[in-house]
Amino acid sequence: MRQGFKQKNIVIIGAGFSGILCAQRLEKKTARLKNISITLIDKNPYFTMRTEIHAAATGRGKPEGITYDLAETFADSPNVSFFQDEVTDIDFENKVVKGNVNDYTYDYLVIAAGSRPNFFGIESAQENALPFWTYDDAMALKKHIKECFEKAAPLADEEEQKKLLTFCVVGAGLTGVELAGELAEYIPMMCVKYKLPQGLTRVLCIDAAARTIPNLPNKVSTTCSCILKELGVDLEMNAKVVEVKPDALVYEQIGKTVTVPSCTVVWSAGITSETITCKAAETLDSRNNRIVNLESLQSSDPNVFVIGDNMYYVAKGKEHPVPQMVENTEQSSVLAADNIADLITGKEAKRVYKPAMHGCMISLGAKKGIACLCRYRQPVHDPAAVPSGAACQAGDQRLLPVTGLRSRKSASHREA
Ligand SMILES: Cc1cc2nc3c(=O)[nH]c(=O)nc-3n(C[C@H](O)[C@H](O)[C@H](O)COP(=O)(O)OP(=O)(O)OC[C@H]3O[C@@H](n4cnc5c(N)ncnc54)[C@H](O)[C@@H]3O)c2cc1C
């Protein structure tokens, strides 16, 4: 231990993509300093690979393949302690994070609590739609689909069967179209298993926007919509959900009210920050429940850093905040950790966050997908969070309709 070096406590709220990477990077950067304590807190004992939950919900890949035990992940990290606890409050003045189980004092705090579904104040959606964000949501959807088929199989009434076998996805953004693509492959397999004609089923994806994945360029939307239609998904655009009933979805489209009898409405229409971040946003500078960062990724409180989905950071020369996507979580967690390590060793937090997004890939079922690539190492174009047209300048990105694509982590094998 260095003479006179006081113990420094770093607390990280959230062990998602960014929290884990930040803890690992901090551990590496402070390896030579013995008196460092890194506390990583998550309400779950496991990390969820969110990017794969739509596959796990529809029988592609094993559910246990998308969760990783956090205590095990950090078992060989002497400076990192993982605590399963739900953070309920932060006392910024006294530098204490309050959980259901413990209180945690900090010198530096990292907020990395991620997002949750946004129901935009539609109460009936909150009550009756299935959210789609967590591992539990994915498993609940899988169980629900199975129950719908089990109920439909012995029925004689075709209308009742159709109601049970109509699967609606609200939201045609990245998450919505990916889920719709998976469902379009999964539902026919379930028909075979339960000996039901495919004609009784329907996969519907609806959005208030005029086109699918409206934050990406037109060409990407068009390709995406074509692939989904080929897979058998019904797309309803310019359709604004007004009510979700236990057995129907009601939307307005071009002045008409449409009611779709359906026992399954999955909500992937938008996200907002997790509750603890919304609470922190009442004290720290914030925009739309995301916390505004300085270039160093510090918030308006210099002892508090914000990374991943929770950050509201507009890179120099850009108009829009960084996208709530994994690439931003990776880059922000590294920079925040490096700046914290500098502060601990008496330097200034001088590093400036310059995100460089490479694009995104959209999987539409096990075999098809689209890659939307920004030019390598170009500064962020925020492909997921900016209005169409502004996302990528001509020549900045290439569009690759990819067939035969295999997702990174899940195989194309699917079980009904
Ligand atoms: C179906 C789906 C598909 C996606 N696909 C892609 C994709 O293909 N590419 C891409 O780039 N992005 C994708 N995303 C978005 C991506 O998952 C997020 O951008 C990323 O997870 C954000 O990382 P994060 O670390 O900020 O938050 P998260 O990974 O969400 O982690 C936050 C953690 O904080 C914990 N937490 C929250 N509140 C508390 C509390 N009060 N106390 C303790 N712990 C708490 C949570 O349990 C969680 O573990 C997808 C998301 C979904 C849902």
Helices and strands in order, then pairings?
Layout: E1 8-13, H1 17-29, E2 36-42, E3 46-48, H2 53-57, E4 67-69, H3 70-73, E5 80-84, E6 87-91, E7 96-99, E8 103-105, E9 108-111, E10 115-117, H4 123-128, E11 130-131, H5 135-152, H6 158-164, E12 166-170, H7 174-193, E13 202-206, H8 218-231, E14 233-236, E15 239-245, E16 248-253, E17 256-261, E18 264-267, E19 271-273, H9 275-280, E20 286-287, E21 290-292, E22 304-306, E23 311-312, H10 326-344, E24 359-364, E25 368-374, E26 397-403
Parallel strand pairs: 1-2, 1-9, 2-5, 9-22, 11-18, 12-13, 12-18, 13-14, 21-23
Antiparallel strand pairs: 3-4, 6-7, 7-8, 10-19, 15-16, 16-17, 20-21, 24-25, 25-26
Quick description:
The chain has helices at 17-29, 53-57, 70-73, 123-128, 135-152, 158-164, 174-193, 218-231, 275-280, 326-344; strands at residues 8-13, 36-42, 46-48, 67-69, 80-84, 87-91, 96-99, 103-105, 108-111, 115-117, 130-131, 166-170, 202-206, 233-236, 239-245, 248-253, 256-261, 264-267, 271-273, 286-287, 290-292, 304-306, 311-312, 359-364, 368-374, 397-403. It is of the alpha/beta class and 416 residues long. The radius of gyration is 23 Å and the shape is elongated.
Protein architecture, described:
- The relative contact order is 0.15.
- A five-stranded parallel β-sheet has the order 5-2-1-9-22, covered by helices on one side. A five-stranded parallel β-sheet has the order 11-18-12-13-14. The protein has a three-stranded antiparallel β-sheet with strand order 6-7-8.
- Helix content is 27%, strand content 28%.
- The protein has two domains: 8-43 and 85-117 and 272-344, FAD/NAD(P)-binding domain (3-Layer(bba) Sandwich), CATH 3.50.50.60; 123-269 and 363-373 and 375-403, FAD/NAD(P)-binding domain, CATH 3.50.50.
- The chain is built from ten helices and 26 strands.
- The radius of gyration is 23 Å and the shape is elongated.
- Strand 1, helix 1 and strand 2 (36-42) form a beta-alpha-beta unit.
- Helix 1 (17-29) runs parallel beside helix 10 (326-344), helix 5 packs antiparallel against helix 6 (158-164) and helix 7 runs parallel beside helix 8 (218-231).
- By secondary structure, the chain is α/β, with parallel strands linked by helices.
- It binds flavin-adenine dinucleotide.
- The site of flavin-adenine dinucleotide has 33 residues, from helix 1, strand 2, helix 2 and helix 10.
